[in-house]
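Design request, tokens follow.
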């Protein structure tokens, strides 16, 4: 099942014939049987999707979680998930421009698989952690590298307004397949910058969810961005510029495109 949110906040189920309006909020439909639509099918033509969850309760990032990314940065693979926070106000949906802050010179893209939590959970064992997963989505963990380096911690560099492109929809686990083995790419102005697989994640989905749940309670709608593979702009000193277009693709989860201003 693919769940999305229209720009006016209405949740919909994405089907071949169009968009089926659903009651409540998108998070009401995670980790449960499909609900009956509350109205007739809406044509996808002309419909504008927002972020699936416009203000997640939490956004948790996982740093250095790909073997190839750790190699390109010259850092050791973390023995446990390296967590950081990203403010929910950074979230934007597909088609909304990423805005480069005044004075910023090193704004970077990061293609990521996002885990969307579907039910409240804490202190989960790894073997039961996937029960809390409501779905998966594309995420772009936009980061300002100069600030990330100078601050010594990452919150400000990753939380500027528009630095959290998310969407276009959430795909439930039954349709997404094995989240630990999906192709993942970033494309800037038609040029493939990252081309990898979630199979290269150091810490897999269940391990990440379990680890997070033992540190803080997880809530429906929480987003865990699971890290980025090799090919970020920082590695080649090719940062985003006004006029660029960035697309994030994760196999089976759609395509997330944002212009840069």
């Amino acid at each position: 099942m693919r769940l999305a949110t229209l720009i006016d906040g209405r949740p919909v189920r994405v089907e071949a014939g169009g968009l089926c309006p659903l009651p409540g909020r998108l998070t009401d439909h995670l980790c449960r049987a499909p609900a009956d639509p509350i109205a007739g099918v809406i044509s996808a033509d002309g419909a504008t999707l927002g972020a699936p969850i416009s203000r997640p309760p939490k956004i948790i990032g996982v740093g250095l979680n790909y073997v190839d990314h750790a190699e390109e940065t010259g850092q050791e693979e973390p023995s446990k998930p390296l967590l950081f926070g990203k403010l929910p106000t950074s979230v934007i949906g597909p088609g909304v421009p990423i805005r480069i802050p005044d004075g910023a010179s090193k704004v970077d893209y990061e293609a990521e698989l996002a885990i969307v939590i579907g039910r409240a959970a804490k202190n989960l064992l790894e073997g039961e952690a996937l029960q809390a997963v409501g779905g998966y989505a594309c995420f772009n963990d936009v980061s300002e590298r100069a600030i990330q380096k100078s601050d010594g911690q990452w919150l400000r560099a990753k939380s500027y307004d528009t630095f959290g492109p998310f969407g276009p929809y959430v795909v439930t686990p039954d349709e997404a397949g094995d989240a630990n083995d999906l192709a993942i790419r970033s494309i800037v102005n038609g040029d493939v910058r990252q081309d990898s697989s979630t199979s290269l994640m150091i810490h897999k989905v269940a391990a990440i969810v379990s680890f997070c749940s033992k540190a803080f309670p997880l809530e429906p709608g929480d987003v865990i961005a699971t890290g980025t593979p090799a090919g970020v702009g920082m590695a080649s000193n090719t940062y985003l510029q006004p006029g660029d277009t960035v697309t994030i693709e994760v196999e089976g989860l759609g395509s997330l495109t944002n212009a840069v201003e």
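Comment from the thread starter after seeing the answer: thanks! The longest strand covers residues 133-140.
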